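Project standup — Tuesday

K.O.: blocked on the structure for the chain from last sprint. Re-posting the sequence here as requested.
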Amino acid sequence: MIELLHGDCLDLMKDIPDKSIDIAFTSPPYNMNLRVRNGKYCSRQIVKEISTKYENYADNLSMEEYYKFSKNIITELIRVSNLVFYNVQILTGNKRALYKIIGNFSENIKELIIWDKINAEPAIGTGVLNSRFEIIIVLANNEIAITRQFKNSNFDRGKLQNLWEIKKGKKITNSHGAVFPVELCEKVIYNFSKEGDKILDCFMGTGSTGVACINTNRNFIGIEKDDKYFEIAKNRIEQAQQDVAPKV
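H.V.: unblocked you, prediction finished:
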């Protein structure tokens, strides 16, 4: 079953029953265009009028707005899902909010996985470290999160690390500069779910999680607000379905 929903994920997730999703795997906007000048937060749009990633979203919430946005999303994901994998990169425009989020959900955090992209992102300025990794925050209800053990995992003892070396995804046309690699999606899905499980990506983007679900025989619910990305994801997922369909 593949279900693609076009709209705001907070609105649409209200219709998803509690704990009806086996795994949520998603990556929210990173607030890339909130910058610091002269010791104060400001928008990158002062010098660049459009987002580097989105055509219809500025990606420059205030730190407090980004914190509230992240808190609301994670709260809903924990409600609807048994296990949440929340991928994000720590940047100037989000780090204070993310550290606050980690503290806020400390009893729900089961594990932190480091996604090593192998090639570091170039630093944005002098004195700034090149950024080579992103974090995947794994969350669940606190009675599940209290231990690091994944009871329904598919990997043998000692066989899976919490640092994953996977190259970042390639651009799809000129639409998206930060495409989820299908390999990363498949690694989560293979190791922490079983065939026929239901996977949710509430920031579907260009549809990599949906493609991974088709490749691994999982059900998928994808939510995307951006018109352009929704069409790209729909086309990618339809192509993946054709690729795996039995040849007559």
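K.O.: great, moving the ticket to review. Residues 46-51 have pLDDT under 50 and may be disordered. The longest helix spans residues 63-80.
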